[in-house]
Amino acid sequence: MTALFNFQSLLLVILLLICTSSYAHYVFPGIMDRNKDGVFGIFWKCARIGERLSPYVSLCCVLMAISIFMGQ
C-alpha cells in the first residue's frame, strides 16, 4: 500500500520530511533561507516546524518507531 492511502505511512513520511528539512537547514542555512517561497518553501516550512517543535517532533519519532517495531 502506498504512503498516501495508509495513515501510519503518511505520518511517517511527514515526520521524515520534517526531520530531514531541519537537518538540511542546520547544515545549509543559506540555501534554505533563500528558498522561502515556491515549491522549495515547503522544505523551509518543515524546517521551521522541526526547529520550533523539536521536543514534540522527537517524541513523535520515538512513538512511531515503537509503533512500527511492535507492529512487525
UniProtKB/TrEMBL annotation:
TM spans (from-to): 53-71
Pfam families, sorted: DUF1242
Listed InterPro entries: KISH_domain (IPR051523), Ksh1 (IPR009653)
Bilayer topology annotation: Single-pass type I membrane protein
Keywords for the protein's UniProt record, in alphabetical order: Golgi apparatus, Membrane, Methyltransferase, Signal, Transferase, Transmembrane, Transmembrane helix
Cell compartment(s), UniProt: Golgi apparatus membrane
Gene Ontology CC entries for this record: Golgi membrane
Listed GO MF terms: methyltransferase activity
Signal peptide: 1-24
Any GO BP annotation: methylation
Family statement: Belongs to the KISH family.
PANTHER family: PROTEIN KISH-A
Stated role: Involved in the early part of the secretory pathway.
Protein name: Protein kish
Organism: Glonium stellatum
